[in-house]
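Ops channel
N.P.: pipeline sanity check, posting one input/output pair.
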């Protein structure tokens, strides 16, 4: 990115805009929009291809994964939302998470959704969500996932213990950083945390989210971060199940199906928690907890 000149950025943005109407953008189209001569455009394109910001085929050009990452970062930087970037905090199945610095010197994280790789394995609910979109490109589904995750964090924060949502751009979200580790790696006893109390507190958060109309859908020891003081947050919300009826009407799912789906997703989340807490000798009845949450 350091090597990118203003004209490179301009061409990259033009290709991005043209991709709304093209699968691959022909060079003539870029020349027309850029109001530059063909030689200049060819030169800029060859630079962008060389540094892997653009992909190329016989039909034209497309912004690459790197290109979209760069465009998002440039936007955050231009808007003065991020002033520095550090190393990776975590790698998930669906995205990479990086340390970033905010203008007020706070640490935050930037999550890049790389969702396209897995969207077909995500089950009926997610496919419905993408149903009538013809080109399920990785970018499109990553962008949807980031928007969804940001929307959910905004709806839940600060009522439910989730990261603070700061901004959303393209396939990324900027959010508050939790200085801690996931439950999978944490040793609760070393942290001086009472497992039973923690379990109950997590159930309270699940209940609050449910009351607001959301089921996490991928809740487990990997998606709960805990700090040295024993405070925790629940992360990783893009696959959320929304209980808002109107949304489901829009997606043309009958409410019976939704009820069934919701129950099985919530029970799966609770089952994951129970499985994790078993090693701390916490044995509770899943159906009782389920009833407690939904009532
Ligand atoms: N707000 C945050 N503060 C600190 N670390 C975070 C935060 N969000 C994510 N991380 C780190 O990044 C990792 C991946 O994040 P997340 O679980 O949201 O991504 P994912 O790709 O959807 O993961 P998964 O494979 O679990 O679906 C987390 O396990 C955690 O280590
Ligand atoms: Mg995760
Ligand atoms: Mg995830």
């Amino acid at each position: 990115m350091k090597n990118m000149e203003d004209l490179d950025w301009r061409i990259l943005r033009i290709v991005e805009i043209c991709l709304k109407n093209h699968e691959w953008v022909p060079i003539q189209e870029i020349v027309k929009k850029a109001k530059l001569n063909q030689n200049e455009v060819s030169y800029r394109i060859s630079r962008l291809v060389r540094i892997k910001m653009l992909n190329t085929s016989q039909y034209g050009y497309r912004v690459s994964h790197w290109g979209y990452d760069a465009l998002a970062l440039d936007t955050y930087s231009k808007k003065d939302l991020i002033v520095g970037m550090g190393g990776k905090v975590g790698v998930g199945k669906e995205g990479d998470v990086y340390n970033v610095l905010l203008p007020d010197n706070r640490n935050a994280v930037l999550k890049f959704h790389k969702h396209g790789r897995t969207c077909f394995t995500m089950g009926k609910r997610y496919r419905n969500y993408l149903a009538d979109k013809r080109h399920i490109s990785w970018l499109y589904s990553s962008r949807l996932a980031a928007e969804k995750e940001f929307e959910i964090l905004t709806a839940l924060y600060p009522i439910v213990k989730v990261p603070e949502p700061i901004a959303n751009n393209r396939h990324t979200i900027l959010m508050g950083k939790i200085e801690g580790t996931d439950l999978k790696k944490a040793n609760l006893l070393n942290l001086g945390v009472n497992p039973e109390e923690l379990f109950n507190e997590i159930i309270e958060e699940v209940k609050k989210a449910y009351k607001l109309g959301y089921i996490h859908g991928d809740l487990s020891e990997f998606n709960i971060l805990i700090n040295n003081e024993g405070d925790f947050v629940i992360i990783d919300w893009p696959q959320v199940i929304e209980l808002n009826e109107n949304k489901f009407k829009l997606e043309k799912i009958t409410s019976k199906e939704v009820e069934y789906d919701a129950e099985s997703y919530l029970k799966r989340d609770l089952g994951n928690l129970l499985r994790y807490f078993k090693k701390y000798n916490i044995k509770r009845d899943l159906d009782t907890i389920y009833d407690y949450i939904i009532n």
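N.P.: looks fine end to end. Residues 92, 222-223, 236 surround magnesium ion (ligand 2) (CB under 6 Å).
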